[in-house]
Amino acid sequence: MKRRDALSVLGCGFLTVSRKTIAEPLDNDEVTNDIQMFCVGPFLLGDLFGTNAKTRKLGLPFQIGAAPENKQLVRELNDSKLFVIDCSAKSKQHGRSFSAKEYPLVVVGGRLSYEFKDNNSVFVVNVASLSVTVNSDDYTGKTSSRRVILEVGLDIVGTKDAVSASLIHKMTFDTIKYSIDGSIIKH
Known about the structure:
- The protein is an alpha+beta fold.
- It has helices spanning 3-18, 45-55, 60-63, 70-77, and strands spanning 31-44, 81-91, 95-98, 105-109, 113-117, 121-138, 145-160, 163-172, 176-179, 184-186.
- It is elongated.
């Protein structure tokens, strides 16, 4: 088993541990034992990178000529799939509401590390950080919904001939909106 595969397995183990956490509704209402976990996604890392690369300057590892073509980079990065794990609980007063503690979480499945080699260049991309932030919860419509912002940090190192450059590249998905049962409403 390769190191990057082992890290992916650890992510699955973390999910198992998280399932045992008790959810608490947002309003501290009395909670029933009806707790529901759900998964939103997948969101492809390469697609996020491709969209991001069109609007942002990518930095020195790309400028020194060590990077593969964007099309190849996007295709390879799509081996990483991001998922938002969330939880809701049924309260006696308000029905089903999103959990206020420990959720949502973001997990990644697939590869976490990529290496591209050419005759005189090496380009390495590692998933360095993941975060998900609740933007808003909406309980006014027919179906309750949540908006989240998903951010990914990539540690990128490029070497061509004797020149080396590195950077942490942060990317943010547009707001992701999903219902209380995990169905994507808008992305």
